[in-house]
Amino acid sequence: MNLTDRVVVITGGAGGIGTALGRRFAAEGAAAVVLADLAADAARAAAEAIGPVASGAGLDVTDEAAVRALVEETERRHGRIDLFCANAGVATGGGIYAPDADWDRAWRVNVLGHLHSARAVLPGMLSRGQGHLLLTCSAAGVLTAVGDAPYTATKHAAVGFAEWLAITYRDAGIRVSALCPQGVDTPMLADGLAEGHLGARVIAASGTILTPDQVADAVVAGLAEERFLILPHPEVADYARRRAEDPDGWQAGLRKLVRKLRASFPQS
Ligand SMILES: NC(=O)c1ccc[n+]([C@@H]2O[C@H](COP(=O)([O-])OP(=O)(O)OC[C@H]3O[C@@H](n4cnc5c(N)ncnc54)[C@H](O)[C@@H]3O)[C@@H](O)[C@H]2O)c1
């Protein structure tokens, strides 16, 4: 897919990766870019900064009726949705004793948010025999987010769901991509690094921290090639291969890195 004249919706569009995608799609000539986010005012401000092609809207992706209403409103105003980026996501931190409310929120945003998006947008795409769904998952969905069990479990579920969609709907003309970045310089990671969280430090030690604009570059290239797995950090492909070939060796290496980081920053 190229972006010229495309109608695009981006959830989690108020900042970080979502806004960078919107900015880049507008620069590529998109006909309309809708930034939808729980933070409605920030989504509107981000859209205003992009220009008249963009608009902002309030949206909670855990509310299926609201996702459906946004899709219907966009189709009514712009005639269709060519590309839907289900990008909203949350990292709660915590392990097995993270509060149930955190596990529930991670599941509802990181997994059910994608399901609600697919249910809402696929009927229109299927009736036209074309459309592209981009699900922002994470490298945590093909590897592990040290220090965040709910994130790891739900991002793995998101990658599994994206693959299921890709296999099921490809012959009906629908393309699906799973965006799996590692560290990206957004508040989600910057706050963790500032507070010295172990998980954030593992991410920083495992590869380059990209800007959201660099992630948007990788997305535009991945969409042009209609690639399923979009990996802005190429090293993630190598890590995933090593993990698949030798799971025990991979885990031993990761444990060694965690021990080293813990020793140099005991309070994390
Ligand atoms: N920053 C990273 O290092 C990194 C790495 C891999 C994947 N990701 C993923 O990228 C996506 C974007 O994150 P980001 O890094 O730009 O961080 P971010 O926190 O800036 O963006 C996430 C956005 O999602 C919105 N959101 C949260 N819950 C929502 C809900 N219920 N409904 C609608 N919007 C909601 C937030 O308001 C926020 O604007 C997320 O899915 C995240 O998991 C981030």
Folded structure, characterized:
This protein has 268 residues and is an alpha/beta fold. 55% of the residues lie in helices and 13% in strands. The protein contains ten helices and seven strands. The longest helix is centred in the middle third of the chain and has 29 residues. It is globular, with a radius of gyration of 18 Å. The mean pLDDT is 95. It binds nicotinamide-adenine-dinucleotide. Nicotinamide-adenine-dinucleotide (NAD) binds next to α1 and α6.
Compact overview of the structure:
It contains 10 helices and 7 strands. It is an alpha/beta fold and 268 residues long.
Give the SSE layout.
Blueprint: E1 7-11, H1 16-27, E2 32-37, H2 40-50, E3 54-58, H3 64-78, E4 83-86, H4 100-128, E5 131-136, H5 149-169, E6 174-179, H6 187-194, H7 198-206, H8 212-224, E7 229-230, H9 235-245, H10 247-264
Nicotinamide-adenine-dinucleotide binds at residues 11-12, 14-18, 37-39, 59-62, 87-90, 109, 136, 138, 181, 183-184, 186-189.
Approximately what portion of the residues adopt beta-strand conformation? 5-15%
Strand order of the largest sheet: 3-2-1-4-5-6-7
Query: What is the 3D form?
Result: globular
The helical percent reads 40-55%
Largest sheet data: 7 strands, parallel
Question: What gap, in angstroms, lies between the N and C termini?
Answer: 43 Å
Rg, Cα atoms, Å: 18 Å
The parts where pLDDT drops under 50 for at least 5 residues are none
Question: Mean pLDDT, rounded to whole units?
Answer: 95
The SSE string, one letter per element, is EHEHEHEHEHEHHHEHH
Say what oligomer this is. single chain
Quickly count the helices.
10
Number of strands: 7
Small molecules (ligands, ions, cofactors) in the structure: nicotinamide-adenine-dinucleotide
